[in-house]
Amino acid sequence: MTLTQLKYAITVAQSGSMNEAARRLFISQPSLSSAIKDLEQEIGIEVFRRTNRGISITPEGEEFIGYARQTVEQYQLIETKYIDKTNTKKKFSVSMQHYTFAVSAFVEMVKQFGMDEYEFAIYETKTYEIIENVKNFKSEIGILYINEFNKKVLTKLFYEYNLEFHEILQCNIYVYMWKGHPWANRKEIDLEELNDYPCLSFEQGEYNSFYFAEEFLSTFEYKQLIKVNDRATILNLMVGLNGYTLCSGIICEELNGIDYCAVKLKSNELMSIGYLSRRCSNISPLGQKYLEEISKFKDKALQ
Q: SS3 breakdown of the chain: % helix, strand, coil, rounded to 5?
């Protein structure tokens, strides 16, 4: 297995076509196909599935390409530093469920490190994509929650993907709404009392299982339910329709403004928010600083 073969495989995965990949690599299509076939024979897995409609990457291939990218990127860093004699920016990426405090921690980390020597990426996305991003080295860290309902399913998936979950904080369940909502001044709310208002839930796409839901009590029969793709839309629907969502209760007014509040749900259930990382991998200094910032929200978790 050579570095050139890894670069070929990455380019094919990015292109989705042998012909297009060959064009980008300035080699013939037969030569590229032969190199990929030799690679697959050597590693003992089928990276790409060939059909009459073209090629697609296999599940085993997805994992292999993730490792290949990491290897090629590390080589490029060495090449840039010791051969080209040029400086390159260190990279840090995090994927997360829609937690404002996780964004706030990211902001504080970026402020402290600055962007002259570092390149940052943040992905507020679906639960399964967070897991995939950490698995495939797109993100060093993934922020999500587990509870008694989804713990077995997600923990099994973490194990299969060679990932580990580390708890950061535990908190009760809160109803997040705008301050003009009729129930905004309540100390506690029963879920049935919200039947006249729409529950706002983040769409999970292809993996729209109860176990991957971002909100607690995903199996509850909500009288009104609206699926949403992003946090800004949820905030707008809270004002426009008196909608609500379920959350950790950690409020970041510096990012979302002062027009929203969290009211405790009448429930004894707890959510455990933590981070995903690759098993037996060392967290980078950037990652450690990010986790340090996010851990500061332990004291802000409403109990």
A: 45, 25, 30
